[in-house]
Amino acid sequence: MKAFGLLGSSESLSTALVSDIEEFVCEMQKPMENVRGIDFSMLPPCSSILMQQIMRANCICSVWNNANERMPINFHPEKNGWILRDNKYTPNWYIGELTPPTMQDMLLAPEEENYSESDEDATSHCEEDNDFDDDSAFED
C-alpha cells in the first residue's frame, strides 16, 4: 500500500494518507463480520486511537528513513503520539475523554431510542468513525 511508504517523509500527515491507512485498518477487520460472540480485542481502534498510532508510526519511520544520515532530522516525539514521563517516552493512546464523564452521558435520550435498520447500516461501517475532516488536525 502506497500510504505506508509515505510514512516518515513529512511530520505533517495529509488527510488522504490518514484516510488510506484508516481504510486499510477497516479492510483488515472485514473477516470479523461473520464471527459469533464478542472478542473486543479484535475490534478496530476508534479514530482518536488510530490517529495516535499513525503519528507514532510516522515518527518511528522518520528515524529509520534517516538512520544513514550523519545529522538526521527527527520529528518531535511529543507532537507525534508520545508522552514524556520520568525521562522516558510512552505512547499517548488517545486524546480526549476515554469514557463519558457521567452515566447520564451514556444513556440514550428518548428520541434516540428509536433504532432502525438504517441506523444499523450507518454504525456497522468503520469508515463512519472518521473525526478528521480537514488537514488542520494533522499539522502544527
Automatic annotation (TrEMBL):
Residues 110-121, 128-140 have a biased composition (Acidic residues). It comes from the Eukaryota. Residues 106-140 are annotated as: Disordered. This is Uncharacterized protein.
